[in-house]
Amino acid sequence: MVGAASLVALSLALPHPEVADLPYLVTIAVALLAAGVLFVVLGRRIPLSASQAALAAVTALTGLLIYESGVAAGQYGAIFVWAMLIAAYYFPRRVAVAHLAWLLLVYALVLAEVDSTAGYSALTRWIFSAVSLSVVTILTSEIVARRAQADLRARRFFELSHDMLCTANVDGYFVELNSAWRCLGYSHEELRARPFIELVHPDERERTEAEAAALFEGVETVGFENRYLAKDGSWHWLRWSSTLASDERLIYARATDITELKRVEAEREDLLFEVKMLAASDALTGLPNRRMLDERLPNEMARARRSDEPLCLAVIDIDRFKDYNDAHGHLAGDVILRRCAMAWDSELRGEDTIVRFGGEEFLVILPDCTLEQASDIVERLRAVTPDGQTCSAGLACWDFAESAEDLLERADAALYAAKDNGRDRLVSSAG
């Protein structure tokens, strides 16, 4: 209607038939302008039926304008074209056809009454107008119908997706969300009611805000993960991909709920850790086994070299263990091994490591220990040997030059020296 008023004003500014009633035309133009401004201000709050009635009224008023001008020609016909464009674009097809029929009826009545039809017969001008307006209506309706079908297909894909699809504005609020977001337990209205950053886990908010800042600078989000609060108080891990449509000032995003995947990954990590520990542990005593020794001893040697601190290695062997096994059986021997392992492990410092080396032999790594200090520790171990058993031990202090194999060989040689000298004793090798 604002456009119609503008066209009327233009007609008044340009030369027009002298027979026209100028005050009447001005009154109609002002009325059209006022109605148009009212529609612009109220916007979507005006019911669709009221908009349809207003457009029909514009058609009738345009007929009056033509009648008052006395000539069925000129820019007033453009109002008819705009009226049909609006009807075909915004209203359902059957309503647009009804508007076309109403417009052609009004125009037929006007043509029957005006003084001049600008050189054409009234019927010819009506037929020309009917054809052109019908074409405008059909083409516009077809374009709108195709667009509506495309929007419907997009909406179906949007709703059918198992991914959590959404758009968000630059102020940080959700705009559109598909049904997959129900996994969080909220309604769409609840999700749109507050900034989405409030749903993010406190530990991930800083990272999320940094990712959003990068998105606004043109860097697309790919594979970003954070936790979102569900309505029941649980946390869901979401993996995001998003892009910014700067022309629309909208963020288009896709999130996948990977909570179950995270749980499975955590279980797998725990299982792998358990398998690794089992592979590096002795099944009978629970102590680290020789495989762990191959990793731990070189690491302790490297640390000792860096810190320039002494490192000692002891090998302990339960005396006459084979005889005990033969006399009491292997199950009883296993009990002795477990008890020795527990007793000796409890006497060591936190930084020390005891390893079951094989059979009845145990190896003890003693970092940051002089030979004298290490001797005191080994003697304590021998003193707590359970069930009246005795043990022999060989002790070697690393010279910072020999290999792990050479160090172990010296400690083993010291052990055999202890056995050769009557067992139940400690023999040390300074290196």
Kindly describe this structure.
There is one protein chain. The protein is an alpha+beta fold and 431 residues long. The protein is built from 14 helices and ten strands. The protein is rod-shaped. The relative contact order is 0.05.
Based on DSSP secondary structure assignment, what is the total number of beta strands? 10
Rg is 46 Å
Beta-strand fraction estimate:
15-25%
Structural class assignment = alpha+beta
Tell me the series of helices and strands, N- to C-terminal. Answer: HHHHHHEEHHEEEHHEHHEEHEHE
Short description:
With 431 residues, the chain is of the alpha+beta class. It contains 14 helices and 10 strands.
Fill in the keyword field for this structure.
431 residues; 16% strand; rod-shaped; 3 domains; Alpha-Beta Plaits; 5-stranded antiparallel beta sheet; Beta-Lactamase; 14 helices; 5-stranded mixed beta sheet
Please write out the topology.
Blueprint: H1 2-13, H2 22-42, H3 48-69, H4 76-90, H5 93-113, H6 122-160, E1 164-169, E2 174-177, H7 188-192, H8 202-216, E3 221-229, E4 235-245, E5 250-257, H9 259-279, H10 290-307, E6 311-318, H11 321-328, H12 330-347, E7 353-358, E8 361-367, H13 371-383, E9 391-397, H14 404-420, E10 426-429
Parallel strand pairs: 9-10
Antiparallel strand pairs: 1-2, 1-5, 3-4, 4-5, 6-8, 6-9, 7-8
Helix pairs in contact: 1-2, 1-4, 2-3, 3-4, 3-5, 4-5, 4-6, 5-6, 11-12
